[in-house]
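Sample A.
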Amino acid sequence: TNFINALNFTNKIGEIAESEQHHPNISLTWGLVEITIYTHLMDGLTRSDFILAAKINQIPLPLK
């Protein structure tokens, strides 16, 4: 992948996060997207975190 593919993938994550009103920490570099999902108010993971992760996992990965 390259930067544009990683950015497009990140934007798809952002769309899902907005629809869920649950926003992960996202780190974007050339060809790499790192996502951290955590509920700060609960100081851990919640059901919403797992729902968001499952929806993000449904995004097709960009072709290399």
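Sample B.
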Amino acid sequence: MAKNIFKVICKKCQCLCCKATVVVIQKDLDKLKKYKGMFKIKNEETETEIPPGHFILTKNHYCPFLGENGCILEEKMKPFDCIFFPLAFIYKNRKLSFYLNKHCPFYMEISKKQLLKTKKWAQKQLKSWTEKEKLFYSKDVENYPRSLLIPL
């Protein structure tokens, strides 16, 4: 998803979403192997380090990959959750439902075309996810206040 509106919005926002946990799957962790010493994961269901899990954030409550000038990761290295935000999905009854998260202060600046392009990208990515990974991510999104989620 090279150069896109999200990169522009993220620079305006000054990384608000980088103050939250990030859902990761094994594929994400495989990409991040060279950064292993910078973060720890915790599977909330089993209290183990077996994904899917969450990043444990640094003491200052920011993503461990957030530098002075924004994210230090190249886009191809970023976890799905980072690239996908402010979009989210819920997986229920083997069906994906996509949403725009109003927690992003610039969500109204994202064009419908860009939203649909990102949704299509996500659908392709999610084909390689396991049922458990989709359900784990969904569990996190289902906890969001419904007033923050706009159906796509």
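B remarks: The chain has five helices and eight strands. The longest helix spans residues 112-126.
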